[in-house]
User: Fold Type II restriction enzyme MjaII from Methanocaldococcus jannaschii.
Amino acid sequence: MPLSKNVIEKISIETIRVLKSRFDTISDEDIKIRNMPFHMAFLRAFYGKIGINDDTEALKFLTLSQWFHGLSTTLGQSYFENIAHILSNGEKRTFKNYKIKRSVRDKISEIINDLKSGERLPNVEKENKELREATSKNSEYVNGLEFTADVYFEDKDKVVMIELKTVRPNAGEMRGEKQKILYGKAYMMETKPNKKVYYFIGFPYDPTENPENPCGYDKDRFMSSLIEFSKYFDKREVLIAEELWSFLSGEENTMKKILDIINSIAKPDFKEKFDFINTFPFINQDRLYTKDAIDEQKFKKYMDILQEWRLYSEIECAKAVKELSLLKLSSRDRRTFERLINNSMFSNNNKYNENRKMKILELYNKYMQK
Assistant:
């Protein structure tokens, strides 16, 4: 079953937002070749290793690396998380100032210490059983460890939480991540005792996979590439690459579909197309409400871009604008319509202007019902 048009459009909008924000943060000054003598001095030792031929290529490499770092930060801090929420109908949720039983806290400390010392191997089923038993004991309550689930969603019979990580997490942070996950599961087990509780750690792609197979993954290989990861985590509590994205959506091949959406938008002419569709360029505003209100050639170009970028509801909005531009509107509705068509699809801070679309469609439906 394919992703719904609504989900696809939301992914497209999020992709456009990220691309536009990256264009906004890279000035002509940022892409100039800069003087970096110390970086260059060290980098020359690696020319053969990374396939750089000369200093000119090296300076371009350093400049691109700085920009790429910013893109990686944007993807890790917002894009992956927002796409996960779109696919799962979930949200980010923080838990603090809560209480757990002392017996639970002691059990978590025991599990963590045993994993650290190597006295036990990670086993998610055994750990869950021990946590359930600890929550059922008669024990005083103590403060729990604050935690945030990057993705949280809840069904009738289960609670699912996911910690989204970069594919190269910092060495030494695995112990803390495991501890946080155990606290999160224990708290949910006590507050929602009749529901199954899952807390995964998720990675958006597998960097150890062959680039010719971007959606593929080898969980064992990936886990072994991270310092102390297998020491604390059972592979059953890890979601990676296609496995993660399809789990979130409930549909197969979701990662490929996400990449297809990105690839349809992220092209060299992105900025040119964005600037064209961000307003309604096909309207001849000095000829509104006449047969010459629409520039048909520009309208076709506008619609082609919306179709290519999978902005399905904006296609309906554009059709409504075309119809309304030819109608005899009341003076009050004219004022509303004229203000709406001078709004942008994306604001200066790159926020999608859904209100513009909704108000235009509302006005259109009002006249179509007459």
